[in-house]
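Q: What would this chain look like folded?
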Amino acid sequence: MTTRPKPYHHGDLRQSVLAAALDAIAADGPAALSLRDLARRAGVSHAAPAHHFGDRTGLLTAIAAQGYDLLAEALAGAPELRERGVRYVRFAADHPAHFQVMFQPDLLRADDPDLVAAKARASAELRAGVADLAGVPDTREAGIAAWSLAHGFATLLLTGNVDAALGGRAPEEYFRSLTGLLFTR
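A: My prediction, written as structure tokens:
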């Protein structure tokens, strides 16, 4: 009796490569990312990542698009601007590899349709928190100010620059305190 080899089936190859890439970025940063290493980490052929993403830039663009979608989901339904900032900080803490890639346009294909759509969803969620502010003459400027505070704090958090200041407090709690120092809303 002859046994036939089982057909090769990896499952969701695209997602496996994305997960391996996120692990690699979390460990070594996006600059160290290589498709050949990702294939090894994911246990697939060296051609598999290129088949799904084209090249390293395509892979990083897919990671950024996924990150913006996750950010939009995290921000959705926040009751007010401060809580959107808190959710932004939580997103960065929960998804540090996405966060590292999303805001490095030199690593991405800016015209990628999935990236453009995901960025638009996240931007709409960020703007929604500012739209309800009463008495703000320029909501675009207020939005940039709010984003700068949340993004700056998230970046400081991920790079370990506020660890001592946190003193064991949750980053979200600390961020709420910071916004309370600056804003009455």
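The two ends are 76 Å apart (CA to CA).
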